[in-house]
Amino acid sequence: MVTTQSTTVRDLRSALDEAEAHGELICIDREVEPGYEIPNIARTLSLQPRCPVVLFENIRGFAGWRVATSLNADRARVGRLYNLPSGPLAQKLYLMDRFESPIPPRVVATGPCKENVFTQGIDLQTLIPWTHGSRHVTHRYFQGPVISRDPRTGRQNVAMYRTCIQGPDTATVNGRWDRHLGHQLGDAKRAGQSLPVAIVLGPDPGLIQVAASKFPYGADDFAMLGAIRGEPVELVRCETQDLLVPADAEVVIEGEIRLPLQTGDDGPWPEYLSYLGMNIHPPLMHVTAITHRNDPIQYMIIPRGSGDNSGVLAGALFLRHLRGFLSTFVEDCTLVPASAMHHAVVKVRKTEPHHEGLQLNAALSAFGFLVELDRVVLVDDDIDIYDHEQVEWAVATRCDPATQVHLLCPGRSHQNNPIAGVKEMFGEPITKQKMIIDATIPWRYRVAEKGPGLTFFTRSEWDAVDLGEYLQPADRERWVKAHATGTLTAAMFDKPAGQAGLPGTM
Ligand SMILES: Cc1cc2nc3c(=O)[nH]c(=O)nc-3n(C[C@H](O)[C@H](O)[C@H](O)COP(=O)(O)O)c2cc1C
């Protein structure tokens, strides 16, 4: 059991204050247009070595509003906001522990999100800053956690689904049929009821992470956020729907998906894999109220680029899934950022001959975590799975495709991965052949000695020297120090003398 200190983050404003206190907030006071200008400025800033938090203070057409972005884009920042330990594995283990002790939310009578209430004359187009996103996108969007209630169990679900404005008081909610909202909608239809939904814009950025994560259906997402914060999240009742929403959210859009189900038009949208998505027809929500704080701040999530999702929570849930099956045989795992959820690397600890083969069970289990997962690379526990060069090196030097690459059956993938999604045009299922690349050293080869104490996988060993003893100060200054932050590839693979390799064998 890990002791938790309550975080200082309660809402978007306290998170912005925290970022400012650490010099990570950039305020832009020049007037900016929200549709294309804000996302492009935010994306350009996100391409800097570290992505700052941005606060736009002067939004064309939306007097009195500000727009914030990119709080979740940086792993170190997310760690600091929520008092997480440093290092990706330590963060996962800490969060896994926290998720064992959810802290239920507390319902309060009212909160800042009720400072302004609109139930009449609602116009989504003029009331709240929206965005288009990238070029070619003409629809207007909001992105924030969507809260809905299961008509059978009465439990709330919180999930990130984008909202596309359709008319003054209508918008689509892109919770596809295979998402939790889709399941709820199916139940609502069978029960002949409308489905209440609330869209939360500008919440505690931690809620965005929780909403985008694969908690099992029925888990109380607010209790998970409470566990991360170390204290209960405060919720208030909606004005017009039977739903509970965060009391200190900046904006809440209340509404319902009515029967008979209507759909709207959404797309193309700059999707998470950096391709423009397709035109789709998600369910239509009728807006019944909008509430917001005074001096409201809209939070925009700039798709792909700022990648306003550090993946901290997703990683913890992935490891929880794998360890639930194989315990600490699975040392760590990661979803590769460039391919989003489609490629994973799983690090296993083979220490006994009978462990051979178990790595494949770990990979098969990984496919059960995410529908989108298409490829798993397995590596031994001496590989840094966050360093793609090391993973490549392991694949090149430890995997013989003849016996260690496993092509499985095709399984469902995601329509936004174009090589799978294009099949829909041809009336084919959106599938991709699942694949395992086993880059762990086969046990038999791992222990085969080519000389006393030397295996085929023994790494070359080198001694580190103090260059100060050999180089002129000027050369040391201009070469060693100037390149101190550069990548010295060889150093990552050669084993310094005295450093442990794989247990017992290397
Ligand atoms: C910024 C952002 C936007 C997202 N938009 C969508 C979306 O529009 N539709 C969707 O199905 N998933 C979307 N996702 C992924 C879902 O949030 C994620 O799969 C989540 O687990 C869904 O919740 P659920 O498991 O309760 O259905 C988005 C994720 C992020 C981080």
Summarize the structure in words.
The chain is of the alpha/beta class. It has two domains: 12-299, Electron Transport, Fmn-binding Protein, Chain A (Pnp Oxidase, Chain A), CATH 2.30.110.10; 312-451, UbiD C-terminal domain-like. Helix content is 26%, strand content 24%. It has helices spanning 12-21, 37-46, 75-81, 88-99, 124-127, 180-191, 205-211, 221-229, 312-326, 358-367, 388-398, 401-404, 418-421, 443-446, 473-481, 489-493; strands at 25-28, 53-56, 66-69, 106-107, 116-118, 141-149, 156-167, 170-173, 195-201, 234-237, 244-246, 251-257, 284-292, 297-300, 330-335, 343-348, 375-379, 405-412, 431-439, 449-451, 454-455, 461-462, 495-496. The strands form six sheets. A six-stranded antiparallel beta barrel has the order 6-7-8-13-12-9. Strands 15-16-17-19-18 form a five-stranded mixed beta sheet. Strands 1-2-3-14 form a four-stranded mixed beta sheet, with helices on both faces. A hairpin with a 2-residue loop joins strand 7 and strand 8. Helix 7 packs across helix 8 (221-229). The longest helix is centred in the middle third of the chain and has 15 residues, at 312-326. The two termini are 34 Å apart. Mean pLDDT is 92; it is low at 486-490 and 497-506.
